[in-house]
Task: inverse folding
């Protein structure tokens, strides 16, 4: 049975992906919480940490938003390498890297118990409506 990994209050998870969601950078907090080394994460799809409980519509909203060069925020349940999970409040920014390539920067912080409870209820309803 999987268990929740609770982020430290000061944890700040950062990752950078290319336009297709392939990881180009992951900070130490992200690697530690997810249970992967940096080498294991680089050049992998960010969906490596996607949890099965997340509704498809949540990620459709994310991609639809960032592809319009807008900032997306939301609550995300992610999976760790060993099958546990953790919740974050995520902000995803479209940006242009110093080498001129476009991509996305994701910054995540600890979600509160109340925020998680609201997100769980919303996502349960969204999952019921999936085809």
Result:
């Amino acid at each position: 049975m999987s268990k929740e990994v609770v982020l430290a209050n000061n944890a700040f998870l950062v990752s950078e992906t290319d336009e297709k969601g392939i990881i180009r950078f992951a900070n130490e907090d992200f690697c530690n919480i997810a249970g992967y080394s940096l080498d294991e994460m680089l050049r992998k799809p960010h969906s490596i940490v996607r949890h099965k409980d997340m509704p498809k519509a949540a990620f459709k909203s994310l991609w639809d938003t960032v592809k319009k060069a807008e900032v997306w925020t939301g609550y995300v349940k992610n999976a760790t390498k060993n099958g546990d999970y953790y919740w974050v409040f995520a902000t995803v920014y479209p940006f242009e890297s110093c080498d001129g390539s476009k991509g996305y920067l994701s910054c995540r912080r600890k979600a509160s118990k109340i925020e998680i409870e609201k997100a769980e209820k919303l996502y349960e309803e969204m999952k019921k409506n999936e085809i």
Remarks:
- The first strand starts at residue 12 and ends at 18.
